[in-house]
Amino acid sequence: MTDPALVPMAPMLIARGVEKSYPVRRASPVTVLRGIDVLVRRGEMLSIVGPSGSGKSTLLYCLAGLERVDSGEISLGGTRVDALSQSRLAKLRRDRLGFVFQSYNLIPSLSAGENVALPARLRGCRAPDAAAALAAVGLSGHAHKRPGELSGGQQQRVAIARVLAARPEVVFADEPTGALDTTTGAQILDLLRAHASGDRSVVLVTHDLDAAARADRTLVLRDGAVVAELTRPSAGGILAALHGAAPSGAVA
């Protein structure tokens, strides 16, 4: 009998042939994604980089079910995301996914602690220890404050605490450290890195090459296509791939 520990786990997320275009008034549609394939392993942190307009944020939204693809397939843990109805898709995002965007998406009328506990309340689950979650992002003693009483960087940390406290299967993060100072940003990246373990994964879109280099793998996008894939990359290796070189570990 095969030892179960030696059997590779199924990937967390698989996307094949993803294409996405947007209509333009009185002009041909603009193609943003051109037949992209993506695989995210369980316990893996995957970063996605590329110049502005390369399609990296659109790819993240499609993988997360926030945007419908024009063609292609996306499966999360065996569930065909692209085939779900709007109601089932909303339930999947609520129960299994977490999101960190440049906009904080906090509820202004709720305290920081209540914002952190909100996903569990919506799922009908036991509320997490909001004070501990906030302490993990450097906001001890802030649980009672409302978003309007916090700085932009503090609000982003509340948003990240909210996601990590829910322990989703996949965290989709789009420039999560953009509003943070260097020290706090590094702490947040450490938390995301720690989340990617066991049956939980992280997909990170970023312009920050040092942040991207914290990932297990990096996809480099240009003009809506994957032009390189790097394993355990350095910031320098990612920069070389962005400029069209062929660094060690890249797959064109």
Give me the CATH architecture, please: 3-Layer(aba) Sandwich
CATH-defined fold name: Rossmann fold
Radius of gyration: 18 Å
Q: What is the end-to-end distance?
A: 39 Å
What do the pLDDT scores average to?
89
| Strand percentage | 25-35%
Task: Report the oligomer.
Answer: single chain
In one word, what is the shape?
globular
Task: Determine the fraction of residues in helical runs and give it as a percent range.
Answer: 25-40%
Structural class: alpha/beta
Largest beta sheet: strand ordering = 6-7-8-3-9-10
Tally of domains: 1
Low-confidence stretches: 1-7, 246-252
Please name the fourth-level CATH homologous superfamily. P-loop containing nucleotide triphosphate hydrolases
Q: Please give the count of helices.
A: 8
User: Order of SSEs, N→C?
Assistant: EEEHEEHEHHHEHEHEEH
Count of DSSP E strands? 10
Instruction: Look at the structure and give the CATH class.
Output: Alpha Beta
Notes on the protein architecture:
With 252 residues, the protein is α/β, with parallel strands linked by helices. The protein has a single domain (4-242), classed as P-loop containing nucleotide triphosphate hydrolases (Rossmann fold, 3-Layer(aba) Sandwich), CATH 3.40.50. Helix content is 31%, strand content 26%. It is built from 8 helices and 10 strands. The protein has helices at 56-63, 86-96, 112-123, 130-136, 152-166, 182-195, 209-212, 235-242, and strands spanning 13-24, 27-40, 45-49, 71-76, 79-80, 97-100, 170-174, 201-205, 217-222, 225-231. Strand 7, helix 6 (182-195) and strand 8 form a beta-alpha-beta unit. The protein is globular, with a radius of gyration of 18 Å. The N and C termini lie far apart (39 Å).
